[in-house]
């Protein structure tokens, strides 16, 4: 699942770059720089820009969703690897046993007379 999500994420990133590069800024046509008002295109004066900007918005939204999805997958994987597969209750029992063992060794050490 992670690989598929990552693949979609990369495809969306490339598509966003392509659609942003296809867009033109306002007044970016050659006629507009000379004061001509005839900046008409096949889609009309704002038709293609509206289509490209809407598509870019949808792609950006999908990109953010895949980003959140990848972050969630990474956090779940980190949670699984943080315990290294050890059950927390088993870990707590081992800590208590080692603490009891440490108490017993200190009592035994106190009972042995030291030679100085």
Q: What does the overall shape look like?
A: rod-shaped
Distance between the termini: 68 Å
Mean of residue pLDDT values: 77
Assembly type: single chain
How is this structure best summarized?
The protein has 116 residues and is mostly helical. Helix content is 73%, strand content 0%. The protein has four helices and no strands.
List the helices and strands and how they pair.
Elements: H1 2-22, H2 30-33, H3 47-82, H4 88-111
Helix pairs in contact: 1-3
Textual characterization of the structure:
- By secondary structure, this protein is mostly helical.
- The protein has 4 helices and no strands.
- Helix 1 packs antiparallel against helix 3.
- The longest helix is centred in the middle third of the chain and has 36 residues.
- The protein is rod-shaped.
Question: Can you tag this structure with a few keywords?
Answer:
116 residues; mainly alpha; 4 helices; rod-shaped
């Amino acid at each position: 699942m992670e690989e598929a999500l990552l693949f979609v994420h990369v495809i969306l990133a490339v598509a966003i770059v392509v659609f942003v590069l296809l867009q033109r800024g306002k007044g970016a046509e050659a006629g507009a720089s000379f004061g001509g008002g005839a900046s008409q295109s096949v889609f009309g004066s704002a038709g293609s820009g509206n289509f490209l900007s809407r598509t870019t918005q949808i792609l950006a939204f999908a990109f953010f969703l895949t980003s959140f999805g990848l972050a969630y997958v990474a956090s779940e994987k980190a949670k699984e690897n943080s315990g290294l597969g050890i059950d927390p209750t088993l870990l707590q029992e081992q800590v208590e046993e080692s603490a009891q063992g440490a108490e017993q060794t200190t009592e035994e050490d106190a009972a042995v007379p030291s030679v100085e």
